[in-house]
Amino acid sequence: MGRWTGLLAGVVLSVGCAEGGGPDPGGTGRMDGGGFVPRDGAPDTSISTRPDTGTVRVDAGAGCPDTCMLAHASSSCVADRCVIDACDPGFDDCDGEDANGCETALDSPDHCGACETSCVRPHAAGACMGGTCGLGACDPGFGDCDGDATNGCETSLDSAAHCGACDRACSGGAMCVGGSCGMSSCPEGTSNCDADETTGCEVDHSASVDTCASAENLGSAAGDTACGFLCPAASFRTMATRQGRAGAWFRASATECSSCPADIYHCYRLEVPAGVDYDLLAYGECGSLLGSLPAGPGETEEFCLSRTDDFSGGDDSFDYWLEVRHRSGASCIEWRLTVESTDCSC
């Protein structure tokens, strides 16, 4: 904006002037040489108009006001202009312009404690607390897993080691998808049966429950195929049932209870889910295999162990061990083992 001083020539007034250029009817001034001169004889230098700029200020002079008052600063007049002496605490002159004072508050993430100190951190919102940078909220999908605010939220929470949260690992071969552990597939011979994808494929079908030496004891029961008065044929009954999804060991005793000349039997049935192959093996002593009757995947296995009655009055009872062994396949449906004895009374 230009500065105008002195008489503003060329202003044509069409209101209040007497026709012919003489004194105006109101007596407020006179026309003299084309310029308007107020009645007191001094030129009007406060407001004027011009076609290209509109209303402008006519500054009669330069210099400082009586008191320099710059924003958030103590100031003084130097060479006819107000300059910053010192900024108020918590503010600074970050744009280098004296005219707007100390315009910047030093408590923002962009200017934290000093003009050039930025609290912007990778994958995180910046935070400034008391002039010191801190760490704001992490961006979705990231976490501050190392506890170091200077490198921001450095860890992606879409990995098997940090799935949805720092140090929340997916186990059992589970994959992390979108911050949640999930299974694309399980390794051969394993299954995810607890519906908790954070535990992965937690069932290992080939693992054995106990061992031959620590097998679960199913107890003892009669095995006579004939008993009672006149030795009628005995009926088979269920002695025990067990279920599982992995290999297992059991032990039991077939007891001779009757004096009838009858052989001693215990019989077994192993039902397995479709697509899975489990075998049932029988041992006469711990680790001494008697045999098995293998079947294919999903097929039921049935057989008996027996001992001939020698009719000499001796005790023909016998102990035995059973092993459920996984061969192949996987399923969350359990196998079912049924052990049958006879209904003779001991």
Helix content range: under 10%
Q: Supply the number of helical segments.
A: 0
Helical/strand content category: mainly beta
Order of helices and strands: EEEEEEEEEEEEEEEEEEEEEEEEEEEE
- Beta strand %: 35-45%
Shape: rod-shaped
Radius of gyration: 51 Å
* Overall pLDDT score: 80
Report, as a whole number of angstroms, the end-to-end distance: 122 Å
Q: What does the main sheet amount to?
A: 6 strands, mixed
Count of distinct strands: 28
Runs in which pLDDT lies below 50 for 5 or more consecutive residues are 1-61
3D structure, described in words:
This protein has strands at 29-32, 35-38, 47-50, 54-57, 73-78, 81-87, 91-92, 104-105, 107-108, 111-112, 124-129, 132-138, 142-143, 155-156, 175-177, 180-182, 190-191, 203-204, 208-209, 216-222, 236-244, 247-255, 264-271, 277-285, 288-292, 301-307, 318-328, 335-342. It has 346 residues and is mainly beta. A hairpin with a 2-residue loop joins strand 24 (277-285) and strand 25 (288-292). The N and C termini lie far apart (122 Å). The chain is rod-shaped and about 135 Å long. Helices cover 0% and strands 40% of the residues. The model is unreliable at 1-61 (pLDDT under 50).
